[in-house]
Amino acid sequence: MSLITLAWSYLKARPLTTALNVLLLALGVSVITVLILFTNQLEEKVTANSKGVDLVVGAKGSPMQLILCSVFHVDFPTGNINLKEAERISRHPMVKKAIPLALGDSYMGFRIVGTRRDYATLYNAELAEGAWWDNHLEVTVGATAAQQLKLKVGSELVSAHGLTENGDEHEAHHYKVVGILKPSHTVLDQLLLTNVQSIWLAHDLAAGDTTGVIASTLVPGHPAGDSTREVTSLLIQYRNPLAVIQLPRFINGQSNLQAAAPAYETARLFSILGVGMDVLRAFAIVLILISGLSIFIVLYNSMKERRYDLAIMRSMGASRTKLFVAVILEGTWLTALGSLFGLMLGHGVLYAFTLAVTGSAATGVQAGVYYAAETWLLGGSLALGILCSLLPALEAYRTDIHEVLAGN
Amino acid sequence: MIRVSQTSYQYPGGTRIAFPDFHIPRGNHGLLLGNSGSGKTTLIHLIGGLLRGQQGKVEVGGVDMASLTEQGLDQYRGRHFGFVFQKNHLIQALTVEQNLLAAPFFAGLPQNSENAEALLQELGLEGKRQARIRELSHGQAQRVAIARALINKPTVILADEPTSALDDKNCDKVIRLLMEASTNHGATLVVATHDQRLKSVMPVSVELVASG
Ligand SMILES: Nc1ncnc2c1ncn2[C@@H]1O[C@H](COP(=O)(O)OP(=O)(O)O)[C@@H](O)[C@H]1O
Ligand SMILES: [Mg+2]
Fold first, then answer.
1. Cβ neighbours of residue A376 under 8 Å, at least 6 residues apart?
2. pLDDT score of A366
3. How far is the CA of B36 from the centre of ligand 2 (A)?
4. Same domain, A176 and A35
5. B50 shares contact with chain A (CB less than 8 Å)
6. What is the reported pLDDT for A6?
7. Could you say which of A1, A12, A313 has the minimum Cβ distance to residue B111?
8. Which of A70, A130, A136, A406 is deepest in the core (most CB within 10 A)?
């Protein structure tokens, strides 16, 4: 017997009430846990993926869509831009670096990106085996994509038109896997990288030849100033802080181009998501407060039923403080169980989500990570337990042994 | 063992209850007899430290109860007294064994399961260690309460109306059990009651008369 087992015995003596209180708290805590896991990971992903990209230039349309498509590879392109125009932008004095992306094809649902080597450098990608793509129709595959598609160095594949799994296949052109990347925990893990010409070739456009002409700065190996070729977008790094204001204005002034800043668009995305999250969070907090109130009511009422128990304990030598602590422990037991159960439930729900929802692997959300905020959640729940049992404990502390045991 | 002198007690708004002086020597047993309302419960609570005295002196084992601090009183109560009430007041949430071990736990004494088992056997409750309180008959529950009063090897057992609700047969059984067990464990038994039947089995230490 100890105060902890005593408190536990009282909880066990009314299993239904205890279960209800634990469940109520667990539900609230699990919702908050899922929110913590989700928002933290989303933020991490967003920061990792938009690292080093100051501005995205693409065809006119929704700037959010341009960012989602070109940085996170989740939405569809807004259209294409002329290579000649893209080259002109990339030569602007405020542009430090411009990386072209040619999108539109995929293999088994994983996107094929025609780009330059420095796109991979942006994410500090490293080769796990094989080599970087060099010639036309060579691909270097991201870690997750390679694993899920069971691709190895030397594998051949036929790309499909479109970004979904059931696009028409470009039968005539076979890609060859030349390298596999190490996991970078960025969107790169889900991509198949190749050069821009490969995408053109798959669409039956000739790759071009630079013998005797000036080569394009954006697409090495292709003649400069070719207005018959297109890319989807340009990822741009600013040369200086002044560019933040001037470059987007300059680009948006062009008739068929738009510039979108990832930092601005993701902030906008978060503020939209934030409303939903706030509603969920408020709902969870209400659940937690109700469970706290319920714990208080249950404990407070049971002090009346327990007045003889309390008086007998005092007659056996228990000090007032001991009884006080025993009741506090009972409340703490309840919230400890509720919050631990809630944390497990939260992780469990997210785990089930990653298993059940296809493509959730692509979002990179994992259930098996732990954030400091969860410790705060646990601590907060324990504090709630103490708070809710404070008044009942005071009641126990005040028990008048003489009056109770005299039975008057 | 127990000495009460010049003691009186007044409840707020009530008349003063004055108690006759008396003394119960170590190892002896004594009856506090009196009608309902005569102050028996008040007296036994004064002796057992459940109620703080106002006037006079209550000594138990040579210790003036008034000299103890709040904490000291809790500890003294736990280690030197065993209480038996008319209702058994067992803790329903605990098993029989846990009810017994609660006494040493709250008194800050080592909890010994074998001790508990031996006491249960002595009181004819073998095999009831893990039983729930609600599974016990009235008689069994009362014996568990007696075992609980004995387990800390107290010097004094204080019983308030232990037999009042019982028929003659059970009354006799319970009082004999209490006396026997107290003697076996070297404790002084003090019974407060209006139950005249007990006069024939125990010496009367004080007769209280209701004032007014
Ligand atoms: N808490 C109390 N407040 C006021 N009066 C009380 C209180 N407890 C007992 N009394 C009164 O004190 C007297 C003695 O009570 P008690 O010691 O319980 O007597 P007994 O146990 O002999 O029946 C009674 O008149 C009772 O009404
Ligand atoms: Mg009484």
1. none
2. 81
3. 7
4. no
5. yes
6. 95
7. A1
8. A70
- Nearest CA distance, B147 vs chain A (angstrom): 13
Q: Which of B16, B32, B41 to mutate to test the pocket of ligand 1 (most atoms within 8 A of CB)?
A: B41
Query: Is there a single domain that holds both residue A29 and residue A81?
Result: no
> Which tokens hold the place of B141?
């529950």
Overall domain count for chain A: 2
Same domain, A249 and A310: no
> Is B48 part of the contact surface with chain A (CB cutoff 8 Å)?
yes
B140 touches chain A (CB under 8 A): no
Whether the CB-CB separation of A238 and A54 falls below 8 Å is answered with yes
Count other Cβ atoms within 10 Å, centred on residue A60: 15
H/E run at residue A33? helix A15-50
Out of B41, B87, B102, whose CB is closest to A316? B102
CATH class given for the domain over B2-207: alpha beta
**B3 in Cβ contact with B177 (< 8 Å):** no
Nearest by CB: B106 against A313, A406, A407: A313
Q: Are residues A105 and A211 in the same domain?
A: yes
Q: What is the residue range of A147's domain?
A: 55-260
What is the distance between the alpha carbons of residues B58 and B47, in angstroms, rounded to a whole number?
6
Report the alpha-carbon angle B157-B39-B48, nearest 5. 30
- Interchain CB contact of A319 with B (< 8 Å): yes
Residue in B10, B25, B4, B29 with CA at minimum distance from that of residue B158? B29
Is residue A359's pLDDT more than 80? Answer: no
What residues contact A1, with CB distance under 8 A and at least 6 apart?
B98, B101, B102, B105, B111
In chain B, where does DSSP find H-type helix?
A: 40-47, 70-80, 96-107, 113-122, 138-150, 168-184
3-state SS class at A99: strand
Mean pLDDT of B100-115: 96
pLDDT tens by residue, A380-399:
999 999 999 999 999 999 99
In a mutational test of the pocket of ligand 1, which residue from B42, B45, B195, B211 has the highest number of ligand atoms less than 8 Å from its CB?
A: B42
- At residue B84, what are phi and psi to the nearest 5 degrees? -130, 130
| A182-201: average pLDDT | 93
From A229, A260, A291, the end of a domain falls on A260
**Shortest alpha-carbon distance between residue A291 and chain B (Å):** 23
Q: Give how far B107 is from chain A: nearest CA, Å.
A: 5
- d(Cα A128, Cα A281) in Å, to the nearest integer? 41
Q: Of A155, A159, A197, A160, whose CA–CA distance to A178 is shortest?
A: A155
Select the residue from A12, A316, A408 to test the B interface by mutation, using most B Cβ atoms within 10 A. Answer: A316
CB-based burial label for B22 (10 Å; 0-12, 13-18, 19+)? middle
CB-ligand 1 contact for B41 (6 Å cutoff): yes
- Per-residue pLDDT averaged across B31-50, rounded? 95
**Beta strands A110-114 and B2-10, pairing class:** unpaired
